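Researcher: We're teaching a course module on how sequence relates to structure. For the next exercise, students receive a sequence and then see the predicted structure as C-alpha cells, so they can try to spot secondary structure elements on their own. Here is the exercise chain.
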Amino acid sequence: MTPLPEVMPPYAAFLFSKMGFEPHAEQARILMSPKRFVLVAGGDRSGKSILGAKYLEKRYFEAGEGKRLYWLVAVDYEKTRVEFETLLQDFAKMGLLKRATKRLDPGQIELLDGTKIKTKSAKDPQALVMEAPDGIVACEATLLDLESYKRLDVRTAEKRGWLYLSGSFESALGWYASLWKSWAQGYGDAQSFSLPTWSNLHLFPGGRQDPEILRMERESSEEWFLQRLGGVPSPPKGLVLPEFRPDLHIRPVEWLGESEVVYIWEDPGYGTTSAHAVEVAQITKEGQVQVFWESYTQGLITSEVIEICRQQPWWKSPKVLITDPQYVTQHHSMPSVGECWLKLTGLVAGGERGHILPGIERMKGFLKPNPLTQAPGIVFSPRCHGILSELGAEPHPLKGPRFGQVCVYHWKIDQDGNTVNEVPEDEYNHGIKAVTYGLVARYGWGHTEQEEGQVTYYRRSQEEKALVW
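Model: And here is the predicted structure for the students to work with:
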C-alpha cells in the first residue's frame, strides 16, 4: 500500500491501516478537519457514504475514554445502511463490538465501553428530540428538508457535539447548496468540501484525466458534470447578479468602531409578503464597502425597525441615512419613513430615484474583484441572512410559504433560459435595493452602455416609470 497523505497524523494513519482503509488526499483533508460542522458534497461513486462512517470512527477515537452517543440520521432508515454496516464491520474488526441489531428501523450498535450508535429517521421528528448526541452523521443529507437540518443543529448544542453532513447535489438550489456555498471558505466552526467522483482513484485511477471521466464530461452538460461528478452546484439561470460568489463576497467583517461613519441603507416594506431591509455598511480606508449588520424583518412599522437599530453598538457612530426616495415623504395613513427617522433620531433621509438598470450596473461594478488586489468592492457579513438569501447564498429567512427555499433576485426567463423581460422580477430584492440606493447615493449611477469612451447614463422620463426603482 502507498503511504497515507501527509496531512494524516500518525494515530489516524495507524487507526485506518488497522481497518484496511487508505484515504486518498481529498478524503484525508475532510477526515482531519477540526471544525464542528462539516458538509461534504460528493460526486457519484466518490465514496462519500463510507467516508461518513470513517469520520465517526475518527471522532470516537479522538474523544478518548467514556461512553458516548452517536446518531446516523437520514430521510428514512434504509438510507443509513452503508454507514451502519461499515461501522459494524470496522468495530468488529477492531475487537470493540459488544452487540448490534440486525435491523435498521431502528438500528443500534453498542461498543464494549458502552458507546451507542443509533439510526434515526427524519420522518419521525420525535426521534430527533429525545436525546442529546455527541455527534451526528447525516446520511444523504440533500434529501432532508431544512427543518430536519435545524433539528439536528439544535441537538448538537447541549453537548457541543459535531455534525457531519454528506450528500450529492440534485440541483444548485435548496438549503444544502446554500450551506455549501456559505461554508466553502470556512465560516466560524463550519467548513464545506467537495469530494469529486474522480478523487476515487480505486475506481478512476487516472483521476480527473481518467478516460471514463473525460467521456462523461464530453457527453453531458457542464452543469450536470459539475454537480453530479464534481460536487459543485452550478448557479441557476436568470440570476440578476451572477457575479456574486459566496467564497469571495462573504467575509467575517465587524464594526470598525464609533469613530468611523456608518451608512444606513433602507428599503422599507410593510406587508406580510414583503420585507423591511436595513443594511448597515462601513467603508474601509482601502475603499471597500463592508455590509456588517442587517435588519431584515416582516410586519414591523418604521418606528419599530428604528428601535431595533438604536439598540445596536454601531449606533454610537456618525451616521448617514439613505432610503427608498419614494418613501421619504410618502404617507400610508401614518408618518412617512423620512418623517419617522427625523422625529425619532434626527437623521435626514437621502436617496435618489432613478432607473433600475444602471442601479444594477452600479452593484455589479462593486461585486467585481479589483484586478490588482483581487478584492471585491463590496463584501457582506455572514450575519446578513436576508440579502445573502436574495443573492442565492442562503435559504429565504422569513417565515411563510417560501421559508427555507432559495429565492433569488432573478430575471423572468423562458423554458430555454432566455430573458423575456426588460427588467428583473420585482421580488426577493429588498436588501439588494437598500444597498443599491446607498451605493448610488455615495458613488452615483452605473452605466449601461459606452461609446468611444463616453459613458451614457439613463435619465428618467414619463415613459420609463415602470423601469424605475
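Model: If you want an answer key for the exercise: The longest strand covers residues 289-297. Residues 48-63 form the longest helix (16 residues).
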